Amino acid sequence: MKLKVLLGLVFFLGQIKIASAGLVQCFVSPENALCDFCSFLATIQAVINFIIGLAFMGAVILLAKYGFDMFFTGGDPGKVQGAMKGILKVVVGIIIVLAAWAIVNTIIWFLASPGSPPTFWNQINC
Hints:
Number of helices: 3
Low-confidence stretches: none
Mean pLDDT: 76
Structural class: mainly alpha
Radius of gyration: 20 Å
Strand content: under 5%
Distance between the termini: 49 Å
Shape: elongated
Number of strands: 2
């Protein structure tokens, strides 16, 4: 039952995030719609930001779930340990997401020549 409620909550909050995402970044004017390479790069950036947002949203939900599990254990040491393991897994997951972003950012920053478009890959300006 808890799993169904948790999945329902994740689905509901995910729909709010998806509805406001605007992932495809084509520049539309009254005359024409322009989808070029720069729009493609902006779309990739929007997808990356979307995935990171979902990861943090899932982490907050799971931290709340494990916090409630720990609070409502009734003093059972096994359940407290299970909740602590879950919290640790969530924290490690977020650290992995942030470390992956930082590694990619550092590699691109060192390999790109100054002033070239990939230098600031996390801020697409066309």
